[in-house]
Amino acid sequence: MAGERLDLPQRLVIASHNAGKVVEIDDLLDPFGIEVIGAASLNLPEPEETGDTFEANAVLKAVAAVEGSGLPALSDDSGLSVWGLDGKPGIHSARWGGPSMDFNAAMARVEQELGDNPDRSASFFCVLSLAWPDGSVRSFEGRVDGMLEFPPRGDHGFGYDPIFVPDGDTRTFGEMEMAEKKTFNHRARAFAKLIGAADFH
Question: Is residue 6 in some structural domain?
Answer without folding.
Answer: no
